[in-house]
Amino acid sequence: xxxxxxxxxxxxxxxxxxxxxxxxxxxxxxxxxxxxxxxxxxxxxxxxxxxxxxxxxxxxxxxxxxxxxxxxxxxxxxxxxxxxxxxxxxxxxxxxxxxxxxxxxxxxxxxxxxxxxxxxxxxxxxxxxxxxxxxxxxxxxxxxxxxxxxxxxxxxxxxxxxxxxxxxxxxxxxxxxxxxxxxxxxxxxxxxxxxxxxxxxxxxxxxxxxxxxxxxxxxxxxxxxxxxxxxxxxxxxxxxxxxxxxxxxxxxxxxxxxxxxxxxxxxxxxxxxxxxxxxxxxxxxxxxx
Length: 289
Hints:
Blueprint: H1 2-17, H2 20-38, H3 42-52, H4 58-79, E1 93-96, H5 98-105, E2 111-115, H6 121-130, E3 135-138, H7 145-156, E4 160-163, H8 169-177, E5 181-185, E6 195-200, E7 203-208, H9 210-218, E8 221-229, E9 235-239, H10 251-272
């Protein structure tokens, strides 16, 4: 396993040493190979785009799908740069709306960050951590220990911490009590019992209740954020104003309402940069109780 880690780090160092244009060219080759030659999940991608944009001609869906896979492969290239990220690399990021996080933290209850698989979220989270923000990401872990250590270890080096989703309430509330930031990635399908029916691009799906539950319980501010990659390779992170929690007499109805509000917000972001969203995921599975 140590040999695999050494080989992986050597490959990562080689990729990270390439000029951005060559890194981008490699991502284009990988994206076209994936989408047009190997055709891995090609129909899932095209079908998803058709659900989101039913009026879009098939030819345009294919083009958008290809661009999406190139963006995904660019993310893979950027992962190779993560182990070498340092404080002085802040210039790789453009952070907008940082004052919205600072304002939210003034209440001393921490921040719940709402985001999605747009651009490179891991890279963007690392960029925020480089700014000195205490960041925690609710994320699944791997069963294989060495892979888990390698995958999360390189992110922890820049100050990004992780909370496993199973029985995560204690870890989330503990971070919020310290007035820190907990990231919720809310754009993937989540079924019962921890998900609820929502609509996304007008079609029924399931979305996790965790963010709404934590917002209601902790009274922490929910800050929506998204990221996208500029043509020059620089990552832009946009932190928007707080989404106020609307209290409802019916507790369950309030959670359902806010989960839909969060989902609608993420839909807006996908519409802004559809070529950088992760169309690979089967977002519109049938919700079964």
